[in-house]
Amino acid sequence: MKSAVGSVKSNTLSLIFSDFKEITKAKLAVSVVFSSIAGYFLGAHQISVVSLLLLTFGGYCMVGASNAYNQIIEKDLDALMKRTKNRPIPSGRMSVKTALTIAIVLTVLGVLSLLALSPKTAMFGALSIFLYTSVYTPLKTKTPLSVFVGAFPGAIPFMLGWVAATDDFGIEPGTLFMIQFFWQFPHFWALGWMLDEDYKKAGFKMLPTGNKDKGTAIQIIFYTFWMIVISIVPVFGITGRLQLSITAAAIVLLAGLVMLFYAFRLYEKRDNGSARKLMLASVTYISLIQIIYVVDKFIS
Predict the structure, then answer these.
(1) Could you read off the pLDDT of 178-199 as tens digits, one per residue?
(2) Residue 154's closest CA among 282, 29, 249?
């Protein structure tokens, strides 16, 4: 009997933990925190373990809160889509009240953690939640410009790490912001291309032309090109302390050209398979260049 009760409790805790990961979109949150940590290493003169822990914890809380608010707002729309209908709220496993409690607690913990680093860090963190939930989320069913709006909070994490390390906002974090800003267009439009049919069930307008056509593919190519340009700008020594060696810049350029190749393939084929390859290439690209930037700083 005790063994059975223990098994039930274990399964219940496992489900609760699983739903918490889903309501906060744990994989996405971890990738965002990774960007923040990379930005911190780039900006820091000395590495503080305490600061890193605060940034990691606060960053996860802020992203988790944004995702929880998003799923509360879109609960009825999520129920219409195959990819989201089994999320905690639309499936009935979690109440809106519970999700809102989680979101509020994470917001408070996140702001306080980032505030311990600096007021500017907390301000940018809070701004990202506001833009994501109050501007981007409602616009998704109104206009394809939602992706442009969503690119602002989405570009904050890489920059946020630098601000957390330096308590300063200048050309260096501005450059990091622009890299991740331009990156989001090919990334999310490739994802939107793959999921277009599902998104349309909920009325989401994610593609710039509204369709999987040449116009959308051309815009993907355009933003990928500018992403590459911004990513190698630090090699010219015009971005303050944010610098890149010629070797590192060459690797970043090569990675960008690979992504551009997949963008052209999408233009040529205009199918979901090509969109998936571009999306995967974009995920690899952003993680790779962040690692390259950090490694280059410490070995140059």
Answers:
(1) 999 999 999 999 999 999 999 9
(2) 29
- SS3 per-residue string spanning the chain: CHHHHHHHHHHHHHHHHHHHHHHCCHHHHHHHHHHHHHHHHHHCCCCCHHHHHHHHHHHHHHHHHHHHHHHHHCHHHHCCCCCCCCCHHHHCCCCHHHHHHHHHHHHHHHHHHHHHHCHHHHHHHHHHHHHHHHHHHHHCCCCCCHHHHHHHHHHHHHHHHHHHHHCCCCHHHHHHHHHHHHHHHHHHHHHHHHCHHHHHHCCCCCCCCCCCCHHHHHHHHHHHHHHHHHHHHHHHCCCCCCCCCHHHHHHHHHHHHHHHHHHHHHHHHCCHHHHHHHHHHHHHHHHHHHHHHHHHHHHC
Angle formed at CA 18 by CA 13 and CA 19, multiple of 5 degrees: 100
Structure tokens at 113: 């953690």
Give the pLDDT of residue 9: 56
Distance CA 106, CA 262 (A): 38
Residue 151's nearest CA partner among 196, 229, 208 is: 208
CA-based nearest residue to 260, from 233, 211, 227? 227
* Interaxial angle between packed helices 119-130 and 146-166, expressed in degrees from 0 to 180 and rounded to the nearest 10: 170
Q: What six digits make up the tokens of 279?
A: 């999306």
Three-class DSSP labels, 238-269: CCCCCCCCHHHHHHHHHHHHHHHHHHHHHHHH
Share the mean pLDDT of the chain.
93
Q: Which of 130, 99, 161 is nearest to 293 (CA)?
A: 161
Number of other CB atoms surrounding residue 153 within 10 Å: 23
d(CA 39, CA 108) in angstroms, rounded, equals 23
Query: In whole angstroms, what is the distance from residue 260 CA to residue 264 CA?
Result: 6
User: What pTM does this model have?
Assistant: 0.91
